[in-house]
Amino acid sequence: APASLVIFSRVSGKLNDGSKNIFFSRLGLGIICLSLIFLLLLTPKWPYFLLTLGLFIYGIGGGYFQPANIASIMQASPIEMQGSAGALQRIAQNVAIASGSAIGATCLNLWPNNLLLATRVAWTITLILVIFSLKEMVTARLKK
């Protein structure tokens, strides 16, 4: 996932001139949703390559979403507040990473003998949160 995030952040940065931030944000979240659904369908009998592929696709979604999201935040902020907006965005990102790690660890501790179930529960929670984010982006756009 980190490798594809880096690669596709550069790709999306070249394709997006700053006027397509909402499109790229939605595209990224949509790709993340698809990758999570794919990962939820994996079974232990499938080759590890498919797990790697699912995580790679997840990183592609992140690569499209993250730069567009950051650019949208910066565009929505007055120039004199962009440092504060960037810091606030980074704090929110760090809180999300820490919360995700805590949820993942909790799932692993709740089901220590069933790694597949623990992983599926954590990915399901992530999928629900991404769907809510995508839904909010669509409804906010419709209100404009």
SS-derived structural category: mainly alpha
Estimate the helix proportion, in percent: over 70%
Number of strands: 0
Integer average pLDDT? 92
Can you offer a commentary on this structure?
This protein is mainly α and 144 residues long. Helix content is 85%, strand content 0%. The protein is built from 5 helices and no strands. The chain has helices at residues 2-15, 21-41, 48-76, 82-110, 115-143. Helix 1 (2-15) packs across helix 3, helix 2 (21-41) packs antiparallel against helix 3 and helix 2 (21-41) packs antiparallel against helix 5. The longest helix is centred in the middle third of the chain and has 29 residues, at 48-76. The radius of gyration is 17 Å and the shape is globular. The termini are far apart.
Write a concise synopsis of the structure shown.
The chain is mainly alpha-helical. The chain is 85% helix and 0% strand.
From the structure above, extract its key features.
single chain, mainly alpha, 5 helices, 144 residues
